[in-house]
Write a structure and sequence with these properties.
333 residues, mainly alpha, Cdc37, heat shock protein binding, protein kinase binding
Length: 333
């Protein structure tokens, strides 16, 4: 099928440099032509609007007159005929005929106007029209900086309310499932979710559930990447998580490598934190056991025994260790 380019043959250009005069300033001439063209376009458009208004008014009057004609005709059928009503009936019939002729005239004038409009040459103001126009301003609101205590309370409240939903999100494996779940639960797209996912990872690593830890860590990196994207674009993270999923599902190798690299770093930090927590728990347990072993003198029998020379660490020295731990006071002699 061939494309008809004849519509482009007649385009009116108000700043055509070929049509200039040496006696008139060129920019002023262009402005004058443009203003004259705009005035003609406005007058032509106003004429079309007036025709539409008059046509609508003519139709309204015709409907009212036809209703009155039907009313009079029904009265004549009921036997209420007299000379006055017959005269009024003829008058209304003539009004109806006249309005019908006016309606046809306005319709012909509107069709002529539409044909003239199609024949008008294009110009810079009519050659194209924007499909839509939308402006979005991302303005950071001046929020008060939260204190550490306020952040802790906010995180605690959020986790208590949405812990089950966060854990469910952490178990999702497919990109589409994660995107749909966040679409249904947009309140989860926040810093608190990412932090709680890391806490769950550490708990699983301590319990030696490595596969679950790696799954939750993957979702924690997903949430972290969404938050990073929101900070880069200076927008609310709830408004850009779909953009992240669209990007990661068709990601090039460098972007995918960056995602995997961050995931490995997170798993290393989780393992390190888990070891530190386990070491701390062991130290606390040892300290509790030591406190239960302390004697009246404030000494630990194990430490006293281990402090003795190896040659003296025998069962025959037990009374001496006991004497050190439980000294005899003068009052008891």
């Amino acid at each position: 099928m061939w494309i008809d380019y004849s519509a482009w043959d007649h385009i009116y250009v108000s700043d055509d440099e070929e049509a200039t005069s040496p006696f008139v300033d060129t920019p002023s001439l262009f402005r004058m032509r443009h203003r004259s063209r705009l005035e003609k376009m406005a007058a032509f458009q106003q004429r079309g609007e007036d025709l539409q208004t008059n046509f609508a008014e003519c139709q309204r009057l015709l409907e009212e007159t036809q209703r009155r004609l039907r009313y009079l005709q029904d009265g004549m059928k009921d036997g209420e005929a007299d000379e006055e009503k017959e005269a009024e009936l003829k008058k209304v019939q003539s009004e109806v005929e006249k309005l019908k002729q006016d309606e046809k005239s306005f319709q012909l004038l509107m069709e002529d106007h539409q044909r003239e409009e199609k024949k008008l040459p294009w110009n810079v103001d009519t050659i194209s029209k924007e499909g839509f126009s939308k402006s979005v301003l991302n303005i950071n609101s001046s929020r008060k900086q939260e204190t550490l205590q306020e952040k802790v309370e906010k995180h605690k409240t959020f986790v208590e309310k949405y812990a089950k939903e966060i854990k469910h999100f952490g178990m999702l494996r497919r990109w589409d499932d994660s995107q749909k779940y966040l679409s249904d639960h947009p309140h989860l797209v926040c810093e608190e979710t990412a932090n709680y996912l890391v806490v769950i990872c550490i708990d699983y690593e301590i319990d030696e559930k490595h596969a679950l830890m790696e799954q939750i860590a993957h979702q924690a990196i997903v949430m972290q990447f969404i938050l990073d994207l929101a900070r880069t674009l200076s927008v609310d993270p709830r408004g850009c998580f779909r953009q992240f999923f669209s990007k990661i599902k068709t990601a090039d190798k460098p972007y995918q490598n960056a995602f995997n690299h961050e995931l490995e770093l997170l798993k290393e930090r989780i393992c390190k934190c888990a070891r530190l927590r386990m070491d701390g728990a062991m130290k606390e347990l040892e300290e509790e056991e030591k406190q239960t072993r302390l004697g009246p003198g404030g000494l630990d029998p194990v430490e006293v025994y281990e402090s003795l020379p190896k040659v003296n660490q025998g069962t025959h020295l037990l009374p001496t260790a006991l004497f050190l731990l439980f000294p005899i006071h003068k009052d008891s002699l």
